[in-house]
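Q: Convert this sequence to structure tokens.
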Amino acid sequence: MAKAKNTNSVKNQNPIASLPLQVHGQYIKDLSFETPGPFHQAQNESPSLKLNVEVRVKSFDENNFEVELQISAEATQKAGRLYLLELCYAGVFGIGELPQEAIRPLLLIECPRLLFPYARAIISEITRDGGFPPLSIAPVDFAEIYRQQGDQVQQFNSVDNDSTSVS
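A:
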């Protein structure tokens, strides 16, 4: 004899409607790759890489936000710059009913975390297509960056033009 499942707790809930975050779209907002030529690289010298990651948030209205993940990578050697890559990868996110204090961490931690793998793949392909070994960026801990900057950031009054960065 089969046991009857207790479904009373989920019967009246719609799990999709209760999600606090929706991705409405994501896209390359700006992309630049500059190089004097891949053959300017000295074969016996390892390049130096300077990497910067920044997150910016713009509010469209009370519940819809654009989150920009701005990544720049500059590879140099003693002879000069090998390449400069600048990518602004953005997403439009809708936020459901959340307490005010939960919105900022959601926008500066979770949204960039969703965008990052796509931006990372674009950077890898662009550097490879530019004649260099693919640049594989290590995962970024947006939560730790947020925690480190928590003491530096003033009280959260508005999400407009909010940003966080790591170098």
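Residues 154-160 have pLDDT under 50 and may be disordered.
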